Amino acid sequence: MFDELNEDNNFDVGAVNNTTEQRSYGNSGNSGGGYSNSNNGNQRQSYGNSGNYQGGQNGGYRQNNNGGGGAGGNRFPQREDKVDDPYLPICVFVDQGFPEDVKTRLFNLASKLIGKRYTVRVMGLDKEFAERVMKLSDSKVELYLPWRNFNEMDSKRTFNTLTAKHVASVNFAGWEKVPDGVKGILASQVRYLFGDRNNSPAMCLITWSPDGASKFGEVNKETGKTGFIIKMGSNYNFPVINMQKQSSDAVIEKHFGL
Hints:
Low-confidence stretches: 2-64
Number of strands: 10
Strand order of the largest sheet: 8-7-6-9-10
Helix content: 25-40%
Order of helices and strands: EEEEEEHEHEHHEHEH
Largest sheet: 5 strands, parallel
Number of helices: 6
């Protein structure tokens, strides 16, 4: 959809060594056990206790009437398989200092995206805006907070992982000099872009700044509080749509059909 967005998936698969060990439990009341080794090197053990578990050649456990679990017993209930919408998250980033007309544009945009079955992610930096968007849908809005009860709001997406803190630190100059509260807000913006566990990145970032910056090299003092998330998004090749640019409406209409 966006040429700028690339994915790099790494997998680390460990080797599994299988050993063959057969065990049967069967003793008429003695507390000891006997070992007999077969010619192929496999180990066969016999222990005793009538009325408990019995192991067969298939390596499973057979359950008696008194309880216990095994291959023939009840299994964990399976999750119901149903048809769901594809998960298509989009970050609509609003800071409290945005002009009211910009907030209105971004709210209307969020409403249209939800109507198209996209999932809209919002930050709790502007409480009024976040609460308005959350009222649009229970299932298609995600609220991200730097900590619990931030701005007198709550969400299950409040825990800043070590990965989020690390990514924030390498993308913010002077990380060690800022207070912990600022670090928490910056780390929450990492989760906001990459997903709560840093494994479900957003399709794009839609926001606003006075200078219209949408790339790392365009961010300056005039960009304001939106500067960090624009720089970070640009560093990791997220498409950034800045509503200050005249082309923003055309870009959104082209890619999202709004």
